[in-house]
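step=encode ok
step=design start
structure_in=
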């Protein structure tokens, strides 16, 4: 760990993790939580900002410039790309893949086997589901979300649903079926329509990260604003969540 990293008083529990350069980690954080049959320490990239109350399990890999709000739980075997923001009260249940440039607002629930693409905004109080028949031995299937997607607040996304690229999901929508690329979805149950031209087709990284305390105090350049987030992300179609999130 770089000596310029900032660890506040009441040092966080981080005996089972590797942390990159210039980390800012608040008190009462648990990094690399050891669950039954854990194998690898948590791997956390450069420039992380982790607020108090966060718990992140072992066997998870997180990229650079990660911002984590208060009381966030990220369970085992998650793969999270660069420049991801997860705000307070969110839960990732493990075996989740999240791409690059993703902003997840407060109190979002993401179950196992969910895949989130690049440059995605997820509004507060949204819930993803992975079991059509809970408490029955009928298997689970998490939703899959493409690139450049906006999901409003209070949305419910049913198990196994696939949302394409450049989709806008209106707040309060219940998504019960697959959504093709370049669509607007609204209502309960959700109705798919062609995406109006005024919605545009790409999320703006500057707008997604605007107004947050990202990297303040220890990152003095704004090169992230012009970085190309739109690489060839073949892993999005790969169900094997052990692949490197940065594969191109």
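sequence_out=
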């Amino acid at each position: 760990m770089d000596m310029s990293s900032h660890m506040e008083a009441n040092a966080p529990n981080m005996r089972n993790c590797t942390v990159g350069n210039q980390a800012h980690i608040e008190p009462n954080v648990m990094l690399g939580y050891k669950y039954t049959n854990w194998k690898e320490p948590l791997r956390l990239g450069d420039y992380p900002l982790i607020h108090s109350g966060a718990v992140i399990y072992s066997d998870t890999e997180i990229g650079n410039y990660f911002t984590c709000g208060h009381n966030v739980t990220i369970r085992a075997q998650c793969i999270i790309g660069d420049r991801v923001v997860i705000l307070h009260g969110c839960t990732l249940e493990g075996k989740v893949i999240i791409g690059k440039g993703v902003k997840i607002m407060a109190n979002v629930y993401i179950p196992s086997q969910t895949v989130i693409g690049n440059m995605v905004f997820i509004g507060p109080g949204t819930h993803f589901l992975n079991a059509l028949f809970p408490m029955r031995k009928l298997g689970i299937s998490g939703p899959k979300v493409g690139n450049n997607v906006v999901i409003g607040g209070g949305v419910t996304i049913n198990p196994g649903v696939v949302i394409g690229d450049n989709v806008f999901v209106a707040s309060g929508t219940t998504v019960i079926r697959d959504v093709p690329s370049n669509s607007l979805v609204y209502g309960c149950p959700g109705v798919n329509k062609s995406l109006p031209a005024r919605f545009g087709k790409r999320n703006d990284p500057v707008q997604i990260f605007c107004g947050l305390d990202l990297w303040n105090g220890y990152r003095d350049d704004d090169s992230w604003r012009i970085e190309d987030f739109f690489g060839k992300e073949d892993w999005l179609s790969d169900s094997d969540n052990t692949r490197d999130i940065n594969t191109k």
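step=design ok
step=annotate ok -> Residues 19 and 44 are 5 Å apart (CA to CA).
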